[in-house]
């Protein structure tokens, strides 16, 4: 297992190219199961989660090849199996995204029920209820969800108690080939869902309401081949913006979408960062002191829970009090104990963290506990005085394409070592 070592305190200067979105690529790769053909997926990031979903698709009968660094051709002429094993689902919860397309194509799917994870219980009851509304019978046996439909899926109306990102994606993929019309009420509106809708519409699906919380899907009989580019990763983008905020400097992010981070922009500007948006670039400059801000995580377009940990690291560097409410996941403060090891003063009370900024952090040995918690330790390490060693970095490899290379290129002293 590798660790990452950072010598903190070097302002960042230069350009960082943003990769395709992990959370955009996962449902899109799963959606290639929907119909036979060779599907072209562009701007795919090089990540462990992408390798995991491709491995899962292989076990179902799919073949794929990389035509260049970021372009995949996925052939799904033969989908012979319908089971996603515990071995794969336990390493990546997003494996449940094969349920919708397998049900639509084969009329059956067997997917291991994900267990709890580091950030909370994360049930999939909305997905399951949604499939039932479309006429599937679901049974839970030996830790697996067995889903079957006699004949084909039928349109239905689904309401989510709270908007679920992968729930919306799973139901969308099942509904495109169902008989009749499906309405998803209180659907999630994350840009990655728009990316999936663009793919499905390009394949011949009939979907109304893109980017709204009410999606209407008129089922079609057949879909064709896909050719789609993954949108830029807004969480990677946000992480680098916050990193520049933490350590200072002047960096331009390229190949990104500045309109996908409305809440973060608001908070960073208030915090004292200078941000210039271009068409697909963002220049970020921090010269002066940081100001404390409060925030609440919310479904999109609210502040992303996937940026909460990184923003908390930034708030430890102000000289004021910052109140952070985590409203999406019940246990998403695993980074707090690690940030404390670096000198942060943070009190947690249920879903609320109170950060007393002390204006500085000091390097320490810390441990990555989940993907975004690890990113917050990188942000903290870049800004800290002295050396920070982050162990268990396989979490970072799940979601950050060439993190060490990208940060080194803008002047950070950061490297990997075998533990
Ligand atoms: C997705 C993202 C993840 C992000 C999260 C919230 C992917 C692959 N992952 O995860 O990075 O942190 O959105 O933006 O896109 N819920 C239920 N029952 C369900 C489904 C969800 O109670 O069946 C709850 C969850 O526990 C959570 C909330 O709904 O409290 C939202 O979760 P959801 O949007 O489903 O998260 P994921 O899709 O798993």
Walk me through this protein's architecture.
The protein has 14 helices and 24 strands. The N and C termini lie close together (6 Å). The relative contact order is 0.16. The strands form six sheets. The chain has a four-stranded mixed sheet with strand order 22-23-1-24, with helices on one face. A four-stranded mixed sheet has the order 2-15-17-16. Strands 4-5-3-14 form a four-stranded mixed sheet. It has 419 residues and is an alpha/beta fold. α4 packs parallel to α6.
**Cross-sheet strand order for the largest sheet:** 22-23-1-24
- The percentage helix is 25-40%
Q: Multimeric state of these chains?
A: single chain
**Range of strand content:** 25-35%
Q: Helical stretch count? A: 14
Radius of gyration: 21 Å
Largest sheet: 4 strands, mixed
- Give the uncertain stretches in residue-range form: none
What global shape is seen?
Answer: globular
Question: How much is the average pLDDT?
Answer: 96
The count of DSSP E runs of length 2 or more, i.e. the number of strands, is: 24
| Beginning-to-end CA distance, first to last residue | 6 Å
* Distinct ligands, ions and cofactors found in the model: uridine-diphosphate-N-acetylglucosamine
Q: Which structural class should the secondary elements be placed in?
A: alpha/beta
């Amino acid at each position: 297992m590798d660790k990452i070592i950072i010598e903190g305190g070097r302002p960042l200067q230069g350009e960082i190219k943003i990769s395709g979105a992990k959370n955009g690529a996962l449902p899109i790769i799963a959606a290639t199961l929907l119909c036979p053909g060779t599907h072209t997926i562009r701007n795919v990031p090089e990540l462990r989660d992408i390798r995991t979903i491709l491995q899962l698709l292989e076990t179902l009968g799919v073949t794929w090849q990389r035509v260049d660094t970021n372009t995949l051709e996925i052939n799904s002429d033969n989908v012979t199996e319908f089971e996603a094993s515990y071995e794969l689902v336990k390493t990546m919860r997003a494996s449940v995204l094969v349920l919708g397309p397998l049900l639509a194509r084969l009329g059956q799917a067997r997917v291991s029920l994900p267990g709890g994870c580091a950030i909370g219980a994360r049930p999939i009851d909305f997905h399951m209820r949604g499939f039932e509304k479309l006429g599937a019978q679901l049974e839970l046996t030996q830790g697996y969800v067995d889903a079957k439909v006699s004949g084909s899926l039928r349109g239905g109306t689904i309401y989510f108690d709270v908007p679920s990102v992968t729930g919306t994606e799973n139901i969308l993929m099942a509904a495109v080939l169902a008989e009749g019309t499906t309405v998803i009420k209180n659907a999630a509106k994350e840009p990655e869902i728009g990316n999936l809708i663009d793919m499905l519409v390009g394949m011949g699906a009939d979907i109304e309401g893109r980017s709204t919380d009410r999606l209407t899907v008129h089922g079609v009989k057949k879909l064709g081949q896909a050719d789609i580019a993954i949108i830029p990763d807004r969480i990677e983008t946000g992480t680098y913006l916050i990193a520049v905020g933490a350590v200072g400097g002047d960096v331009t992010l390229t190949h990104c979408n500045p309109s996908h981070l409305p809440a973060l922009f608001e908070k960073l500007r208030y915090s004292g960062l200078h941000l210039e948006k271009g068409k697909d670039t963002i220049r970020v400059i921090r010269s002066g002191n940081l100001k404390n801000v409060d925030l609440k995580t919310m479904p999109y377009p609210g502040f992303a829970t996937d940026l909460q940990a990184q923003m908390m690291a930034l708030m430890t560097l102000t000289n004021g009090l910052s109140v952070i409410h985590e409203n999406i996941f019940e246990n998403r403060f695993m980074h707090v104990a690690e940030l404390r090891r670096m000198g942060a003063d943070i009190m947690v009370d249920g879903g609320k963290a109170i950060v007393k900024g002390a204006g500085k952090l000091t390097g320490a040995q810390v441990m990555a506990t989940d993907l975004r918690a690890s990113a917050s330790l990188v942000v903290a390490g870049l800004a800290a005085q002295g050396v920070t060693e982050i162990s268990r970095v396989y979490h970072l490899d799940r979601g950050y394409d060439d993190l060490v290379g990208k940060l080194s290129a803008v002047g950070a002293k950061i490297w990997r070592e075998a533990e």
